[in-house]
Every structure is written in C-alpha cells, then in structure tokens.
C-alpha cells in the first residue's frame, strides 16, 4: 500500500479536454487528489447537466463528480490551467487543435487517448507538432480502465515526453495516491503501444467470441505482442518501452477483459460474424492505419492484416482464422 501513498506537493489547476469515460475518470482522480480541475466537453447541454447533477450520466453514471471539478463547454475556461490533458479520439484531434480558441491555450498538452490518425498514419504528438508547433507535449498511456480510475483503484500508467524536464515535472504534478505515473523518454513507443494494442484486443475478443478457447487466445496475444514490437522498433521506438506498462501491460489488460471496448467489439464480431461501428472503437481506425504503416516500414503483421481485412469487408471471420492457423511453421524467433 505504501507505494501508492502520495508525496507532499502543491496542488495545480489542470484542464481536461474530453468528457468521455476516460477523460472524466482522469478528471475525477486528479480532483480527488486536491487539484482544481476544469473538464471540457463539446456538448454545452451535456456539460451543463453534469454541472447541475454532478454526474456524467452518459459514461460514468455511478461516479459523483468532486466539488473541485468544474464542467464547461468553453475552451476559454482552461486558459489558467498549468497543464491540459487531451482525451479525444485520434481521428478528432486535428480538428480540435485547429479551433482558434485552442491556439490561445499555452499550457503543456498531455495526450491521453490511444490511436493513430487514419488519413496520415500520424501519431497524436506528430499532429500537435504540425498544428501547434510551439506547444510542449507529453503523453500518458498504459493499462487503466476508466471506472477503476474514477473509483480510486490503484492504477499505474506511463508518462513520456521528448523534453525530459517537462516529463519529470508532469510526473510529479499529475501522480496521485492511486494513479502512479512512471517516466519514459520514448514518447513514440508509449503512443504506439497504446494504439496498437487496440487492434489486437479486437483480435483476442474475436477468438473468444468464436469459442476457440483460452489456448488459442494465449497464442494470439503472444504473437500480437511480437507484431507490436516489430512495427514500433521499425518506426524508431525503443523495444524496452513495448515491454512496459504502455505496451505489454496495456495489451494484457485489453486482450483479456470484456471491460475493454475493443475486446467487446471483437467478441461480438466473433460470436455474430458482423459488427456495428455506431460507437467509437479506436482499434477499427487504427487497424487500417496499422496496415498502411506495416507496408511502409516493410513489417510482417499477419494478425493486424487479418483484422483490417475483416473490418474492410474483404474477409469473413472464418477465412481469417483459417489463414492465421495455417501460416507456415517456422522458428519462434
């Protein structure tokens, strides 16, 4: 228990952009640690309702918002934040950053969502550097479910920045008694681990939904980890990063629990043979982006390719499983 105890430090004014489950959970965890939190969401009616009822009925209805958390639909209300956590889907980030009101926010941005931009193959930090080149950037990723973080259950994540001093300062200011942040200097590896595991969570859910058993799921997860590492290293990430919280840790959590949205999506796909993308599943877009990156960097990723082709409608579940199970026998290395 002692490792989760909080070290003494001053409280901060922190902005959180994105009032979905994960954004709300991070906002609650930081507010419960004594920070002053401004939580932004794009829907003015939803944010007004959150302020009035002190709950986010759309995502975390059982969680009471702390008194030090202020919901808002005005980006201007984040102007005094010392740091801003950005928790929006990867496909929406570029449009958000282009908002003229956003360019007036000068605090360091901490990217907390997991995904790769489909049209460009860009990581989220790359998008920030393109749209707002003067902004300081860090990223947080790792194994953590929103409802557990909001409930104050112990969670460990990785925080990374190309600016070592910024990363260390954010690690100190954003860690709480139950939300512990471990520092990395490999922002690319941390982002790739968080994004790619969503694709393989779909694959593992598919295997379970199809009733293929735990042995098949364990084999698939192991080979998925190998694919993650191959692509990440080819793109310049450190292999050791993928063995940490933001790689292997996140993969294990997301590939083995129905609490994972992407795993649940894959389970339905494996059980019913069809799918609906009415909700946001980052693994769906990331699978397509992953396929393009694998081709660009000449990396063999048969599992990711099979998932991408299923989602494109080019292959059914049965065909994909047959192809994966009939791949040539070779050395595990």
Strands, total number: 10
Helix share bin: 40-55%
Q: Helical element count?
A: 14
**Terminal Cα span:** 39 Å
Approximate shape: globular
**What integer is the average pLDDT?**
91
Q: Low-confidence runs (pLDDT<50, min 5 residues)?
A: 1-8
The secondary-structure element order is: EHEHEEEEHEHEHEHEHHHHHHHH
Radius of gyration: 20 Å
Strand content: 5-15%
- Alpha-beta classification: alpha/beta
Strand order of the largest sheet: 5-2-1-6-7-8-9-10
Task: Describe how the helices and strands are arranged.
Layout: E1 13-17, H1 21-32, E2 36-40, H2 44-53, E3 55-56, E4 60-64, E5 69-72, E6 83-86, H3 90-97, E7 109-111, H4 124-131, E8 137-141, H5 146-150, E9 155-160, H6 164-174, E10 179-184, H7 187-209, H8 214-234, H9 239-242, H10 245-254, H11 261-272, H12 282-296, H13 302-312, H14 317-325
